[in-house]
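re: ur question from the group chat, yeah i did fold both. here u go
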Amino acid sequence: MEAPISPPSDLPMTTPHADLAPVAAAAARVHDALGQVLVGQGDRIELLLAALLADGHVLIEGVPGVAKTLTARLLARVLDVSFARIQFTPDLMPSDVTGTSVFNPQDAAFSFRPGPIFAHLVLIDEINRAPAKTQAALFEVMEERQVTVDGTTHPLAPPFMVVATQNPLEHEGTYRLPEAQLDRFLFKIVVGFPSLDEEVEILERHERGNLMLAVNDVPRVLTAEGLAELRAAARAVHAEPVLRTYIAQIVQETRRHPALDLGGSPRASVGILMAGKALAALRGRDFLIPDDVQAVAAPVLRHRIRLTPDQEMDGKTPDDIVADILQRVPVPR
């Protein structure tokens, strides 16, 4: 299971800025609401909230049965926004996702019928099961928050977030996601199995009652308008020039690391900056610190870098290389 991203306990505590107190309070309310159903998912929830504040998309990778879909559904519920789930399959067409123009005989004209992608929070289950043509339909949506059909552009209403899932084990009938699409995800969150105590807690909760009823009882704690205010507060988090240089050095190092065939793009640098600022805001700070940068480095980079074949054969992972890079790049003081 992904390591918690809380700062070390020996760091000095900072007094929350008055403008950021609502962000930390909203994050606490969301944690409490999701905790009514989810067990041991604090790190995943914090990253999802950071992505939401940073206006980014999330790719969740994990074996079946680790609550990937449930987490996205619960997040949509507590945020009180529209939600759509799209099950990607090999026969899915782009129009099944984005929508299509329908001829109206009464008006003798075509009208656009929006697809499920026009929800505020969209869950795409098993994103790697759809062919390249359908994958390409997501490029404009995820980057520009709009859909172009028959030469007409249809903007999506904010907030807009894609949470996609994929299974790392089963590859039959799947398509590898192109780097250009992976680069549009702010985070890749890797979900492992729960600990023994967490799994016992899951069993106890299932014995106590119906899971779906518990989901329906989760309160709605944040509106779309409230989220827009929190996003503005996160963007206002201050980043010292030395920290921007630190971020650039980390990403530059991915491009010359001997274990990597492909390094991070400038979008990765922007992603680390915006995600780090969002994480700082969630923790009630109006300034970025190196711990924020280090906490989001692996989720931002792990799907954007590619190991050399020999490193893969040696059992190395992208997280291993990111950890090595964080050791190499001097931390600003």
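okk and heres the other one u asked abt
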Amino acid sequence: MAEIIKEPIEDYTLKSKQSEGALFSKIGVVGCGIEGQNIVRIASLNGIEVVFIEFDKDKIESAIAGISSELDNSIERWELTPGEKKAVMSRIHGSLDYKDLADCDLVIEALPYNDVTGDRCLNMRKQAFKNIEAVVKQDAIIATNATTIVIYDLMSELEYPERCISLHILITSPEARIVEIAKGLYTTEEVYKKVSEFVKLIKRQAIPVTESAGLVSMRLFALLLNEACDILMEGVASLENIDKVMSVGMGMNLGVFRLADKIGLHKVACLMENLYEEFGDPKYKPSQLIKRLVRMKLYGVQTGEGFYIYDENGKPVTN
């Protein structure tokens, strides 16, 4: 009688094969405001399970509603089916407890700036990094999505600073498939390569940049917006025509003013003040026109009026 050979069935199971090398099958996001929601949505659309951390149940419910609404917009544009939306939403989980990040391969801090004071909330972000490090695996990557904060300031007090990196996912338009990646002083090359793979997974292109407040995107946009405001106040051209020159003539999709309205003028003003504080150069200080709109709480698309007036669907109202 032939000898029966016994082998562990686990070697042939689907679960075993999937678990090997399944890097970034689950990520975390801390802070789920507008930017956090976009990061969660982009990752989950690409098959990644996402846990996001918020600080009360109302914010969790608001974030889920915001993500759902954006997916509904995609359905209306025939970019997504209701069935696909259901699958995407099933991959998203909100939590109040940092411990739920324990098995994430990557956690992205996306806490909002203080819209009133313009504060970058550096201490809050540092504490978030410490809270993340306390629960994740030693090889898990910790990143920030902030643009005007140098990653070294967030990683300096951690036990394993070499796994920290700046990962700015641009969300200004569907075509903005760019992610700025800045290594900190201690960030390893291995972490950079892994994050570059994550960027590919979410169908974006990685742009390596040297650690600098504002990176490339915000430093250039701040100057462009200030100059556009000067041109407008000098009467050189109308608001619409300045945007038309940039959108049609220069290929800048939304134009300068509409893009600022989409980001939120209160946030733009904060970021510009942060750059001025960092570099001490008055070219970064927000134009008086921007400050005036912010004082009037006309933030752009979010409030229905900024440089432009918007309808309930966020579309500019034309005369």
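fwiw on the second one: Confidence is low (pLDDT under 50) at residues 5-21. The first helix runs from residue 14 to 19. idk if thats what u expected
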